[in-house]
Amino acid sequence: MTALSDAKNFIHALQAGESTSAANHAQKLSADIHRVNQVLSIPPLKQVISVAKLDFTPIENELRTLIHNAPVLAGVDGPKKYLVAFQNSAEARGTGGLIGAFAIIEFDHGNLKVLKTGSNAVLKSLNEIPIPMPSEYTSLYRSDPAIWQNSNLSPHFPYGAQIWMELWRLQSGEKLDGVIAVDPTALSYLLKSTGPITLANGESITADNVVQKTLKDAYKRYEKDNDARKQYLVDIMNATFARFTSMQFSKIGLAKQVVPVLLQNRLLIYSSDESTQDALSLTKLGGTMNLGANNEYRAVILNIDASKLDYYLDRAISVKTLECGVNAKTQVSIKVTNQVTHPEQLSAYVLTRADKTKPADHVTGQHRFKVFIYGPNGSTLVSASRSSVAGPAGGVGSERTRPILVSDVDLSPQQSEVITVIFSAGSGPVTFIDQPLVRASTLKIDDRCKVANK
Description:
The protein is an alpha+beta fold. Helix content is 33%, strand content 28%.
């Protein structure tokens, strides 16, 4: 009961604007969570809570970080305004998908208010990135991130968040306190706690159909009216916000769904408060490519033909250590498959080929994208190969001390490509950060060095 009491006192302090009291109760509640998780990690209990889907141990770090920083994030000392970016994962970007719809929300003493919602149609882009960026960044992405839909090309979420915030300031004159990014898959989990939402036309949007309706069906339904399609997304967003602002959801149900949302990197938060951002950057919530020693790998898809065919893209990823010790080497392979089966049934908008160098003989449903494969901080790219190319596998770049292979891929329906890269160095156990797209990657990690060092 201590944890429950501390939780109630914490929420009361937030709503009362008592920052010192809120901070003290945050400390107590964080300690409660850690203590409860230790008890629940006992095998018999762990099995029971796993069956009940109440195992929060995988996201303990994220939960404790949110609690410690809630007084700042929730506006205890004054209202905080955030851009909520709804990422369309049918068109891949580094942090997930391009921004399709958005909201400006405010937290004031823990209370949520929705100030504005809209689609990307009202967002005004620039010709040049509005904030200074590292030279390696501009080498990789040029000035493309000056466009709202391209601001999150990099998988390092703070870059995209900072650009979006400045674009919004220049457009509206309003300075924001941070950015929150989610996607339709995250929304599907949240709808499990609210139950179905009903639109003005009587249509029911559920946890089971929201991804397909927004990222597939809507393109056919509104084939001749793209503005109506975008408004449809905004309507779904508004109906969902209405449920949460009116507290029409199951608190236990919501808590259960937070686990997969965080583990799949489908909720990202950036804060302009320096200490809060430092804390977020050490968790999955930050979406950060940190600069410390690691053995972390990524495979990132960037859509370059402006199609919505990433809805049909499968990814199978293998990470395997080849050598340990001072000559450590790790191999990363990704197999990408275009799973389109009936391209003639898709709308022209979904099938868009806006890339200027598209092949003259390309077929309907053919999809072009880039694959960025990242090695660990300070590592070296040793070799790379592609299953369909005898020569160079792609170009080489770097971002935040990590070497990258960049491969340009163009796949016909049902066609696959395998790209394999070997990196040297890397410190600690092998980890992989998955890009949150419509179809989750299948991932296999064979860390022989971890086994050898036990």
